[in-house]
Amino acid sequence: xxxxxxxxxxxxxxxxxxxxxxxxxxxxxxxxxxxxxxxxxxxxxxxxxxxxxxxxxxxxxxxxxxxxxxxxxxxxxxxxxxxxxxxxxxxxxxxxxxxxxxxxxxxxxxxxxxxxxxxxxxxxxxxxxxxxxxxxxxxxxxxxxxxxxxxxxxxxxxxxxxxxxxxxxxxxxxxxxxxxxxxxxxxxxxxxxxxxxxxxxxxxxxxxxxxxxxxxxxxxxxxxxxxxxxxxxxxxxxxxxxxxxxxxxxxxxxxxxxxxxxxxxxxxxxxxxxxxxxxxxxxxxxxxxxxxxxxxxxxxxxxxxxxxxxxxxxxxxxxxxxxxxxxxxxxxxxxxxxxxxxxxxxxxxxxxxxxxxxxxxxxxxxxxxxxxxxxxxxxxxxxxxxxxxxxxxxxxxxxxxxxxxxxxxxxxxxxxxxxxxxxxxxxxxxxxxxxxxxxxxxxxxxxxxxxxxxxxxxxxxxxxxxxxxxxxxxxxxxxxxxxxxxxxxxxxxxxxxxxxxxxxxxxxxxxxxxxxxxxxxxxxxxxxxxxxxxxxxxxxxxxxxxxxxxxxxxxxxxxxxxxxxxxxxxxxxxxxxxxxxxxx
Length: 584
Fold this sequence. Notes:
It is a single chain. The strands form six sheets. This protein has an eight-stranded mixed beta sheet with strand order 23-24-20-21-22-19-28-27. A seven-stranded mixed beta sheet has the order 5-8-2-3-4-1-9, with no helix packed on it. A seven-stranded mixed beta barrel has the order 10-13-12-11-17-14-18. By secondary structure, it is α+β, with helices and mostly antiparallel strands. The relative contact order is 0.06. The protein is about 30% helix and about 30% strand. The protein has helices at about 1-5, 20-40, 120-125, 240-245, 275-280, 330-335, 355-365, 450-470, 470-505, 505-530, 535-565; strands spanning about 45-50, 60-65, 70-80, 85-90, 105-110, 110-115, 115-120, 130, 140-145, 160-165, 175-180, 180-195, 200-205, 215-220, 225-230, 235-240, 250-255, 265-270, 285-295, 305-310, 310-320, 335-345, 370-375, 385-390, 405-410, 415-420, 440, 445. The chain contains eleven helices and 28 strands.
């Protein structure tokens, strides 16, 4: 026992590794390999930027393409400046080819629009993100999430054009683009440009209809129903039921215009309200004239036509026109109601220049051209202005022409007007004057004349005024004197009749008819002696026949004397015997 306690254990170092370490080493190796494999076989991470992450849930919201799952949202967080939402999404491996520079992504959720209801399948499954791949070769991992699905792929065959409009409610995304009523495209986007103060709409017209979009096409709103109340009457146009409900935009080439060349992408066009606005927008060159009407202009509005013999040559710009006038009421009372019109050169044949147009109107005014208010529609009471050639009459009254002389002075952009009485409307000739286009506040004044009804009313008033000025009392006094003289004359006539009656009753006057009858009987006997069958008549007839025979016998002698005056002394030459013609 003591020996055992004195012995010391010997310690030896092991020179070999223990087999137990194989397990942890293998675990580490397997873990590293799994990390590498997992990292290598994971799809790329993309970043989506949006202003609102409504309906998007991290770890749940899927990313799809053509209804196939291709990824999942991993995280949703705000940006550092808190102005945007950053969405991190993991794509499935092997789908890097879908992440191109022109790829587009948007959120699919239930929506109700003009085109109907879409995205109903997401009511149960929730919203998801749709990816529309592009065809670019450059890859991209940062995208802006679209608010609405694109109408057509970026590389879709067709053409995209931009429309400019001042109306923010004119079109909506998804509205159809129509050509003669047939849908050939769609409105893709609508944006308000604050710097320019107007709306921009991007339209996509698919192939092969993109060839219809040429340089001279014009676009206008398809409202479905158009109501036009003008001087020509009331006009109602109804389109199809689909257009009435959804609206849209029409385009076409105006009648008589060449189509022009095909346009390129992003070409800008103006959006008009209707085809009438298109035609009105064509006439951008015009001369402005001021007209003063001394009658009511109720029913005359801006846009009313200015015509000459039924042909439109201009448009009423402002009615009434009181700009830059110091005292409009005073001018209206003394001058009449001012109306601003535009004579548009583009409406005249040959595209007359503005200077030439002004010269022609100046000459026409000097020859009697006047502006007259006319009724365009009895139903609506709309008025228009007609230019008429009035006859130049000497000594016409001032009421025949509503164009007083004007003396205008400009003081601090305010115009003081002095109204002067116009000279009599006259024609050419010594001592006569002819009107030219006067100028007032920088505008030419075109003379006016009363309309038909106003002219008739004016003439009736003139007649009544003349009747009122008749000397009725003097006429009555003279009539009384005339009646007295008439009574005296009737008394004298009665005395004359009594004298004639006494004369007729006289025996000598009554004997006159018998003497006259005796004279007529003797005259009848005398005339009977010269009637046919009487001896005197027979003798006279015989003498006349003998005279006729004598004259017939003297005709050869007279002819010979005319040809040979010496035939009474010498024998007259006998005519030669006729000889037959010689044969050939």
